[in-house]
């Protein structure tokens, strides 16, 4: 049988300890002799050492690249802390826009801030809240043509509204045909008073009795599968601060940002998934849309574009 030269694979080099080029052929020869293969040519060691030197150069380049990527990642996450961000609005779908607007304005005392009708895409948006959008958090109701009901699911909890007299608001909601799922009263184990009501589509609102505050629409409650994972995501990618935690057995949020593209990089680094980054079709407004580790959707809107949209 004619003899043939066996070329060692890259994995063979990786398994060998470091040594000089002079001993390289001997080490390789011994390695192959143990496998029952004939000795390699003596000049193989020189070629292999050159190969290893080239390989080491590649490894140095790769290490440098990895260090550069780490620095970029660190810069992206640090930038989140410096970005000018605030909660803009929360978005959810309703089956009867006029009925919902009546409930929020007459029952909860909100104002219609603006409306926009996208006939080509077959939907209408209505923005409601307790103050102008350039300084306050608001609700964006979305009505999709021809769809009257939605399955809310079990992940969404409720919205929180702070007010100084929840009993009076509950009476108004009841008179308007609203559903009261918890009558006004103290929280179990606490001294604060709350009530829970439902809007025409079944979305829950927790009414919190507090002294008047500049932002009545004060909370959005969502259910998550891993609290620590979610806290890490919202701190690192979204830039929120953990205010407090409490043990209790008991849609989409929009946030302003100075740079939607840097925001997208930070979200990816923190474990989120980007679904869109760039201008919204039909608008000039740039956004980054993402989902967190539990699938909750958050949209970041370019601050400059958002101000132009309000003009």
From TrEMBL:
Pfam families linked to this entry: Glyoxalase (PF00903)
Cofactors required: Zn(2+)
EC number: 4.4.1.5
Pathway: Secondary metabolite metabolism; methylglyoxal degradation; (R)-lactate from methylglyoxal: step 1/2
Reaction(s) catalysed by this chain's protein: (R)-S-lactoylglutathione = methylglyoxal + glutathione
Enzyme class, first EC level, given as a word: lyase
Keywords: Lyase, Metal-binding, Zinc
Keyword Zinc on entry: yes
Signal peptide: none
InterPro entries in alphabetical order: Glyas_Bleomycin-R_OHBP_Dase (IPR029068), Glyas_Fos-R_dOase_dom (IPR004360), Glyoxalase_1 (IPR004361), Glyoxalase_1_CS (IPR018146), VOC_core (IPR037523)
GO BP: any one term: methylglyoxal catabolic process to D-lactate via S-lactoyl-glutathione
Active site: 206
Single Gene Ontology MF annotation: metal ion binding
Residue ranges annotated for the VOC domain, each copy included: 86-210
Co-factor note (free text): Binds 1 zinc ion per subunit. In the homodimer, two zinc ions are bound between subunits.
Job description of the protein: Catalyzes the conversion of hemimercaptal, formed from methylglyoxal and glutathione, to S-lactoylglutathione.
UniProt-listed PANTHER family: LACTOYLGLUTATHIONE LYASE
Name of the protein: Lactoylglutathione lyase
Annotated organism of origin: Trifolium subterraneum
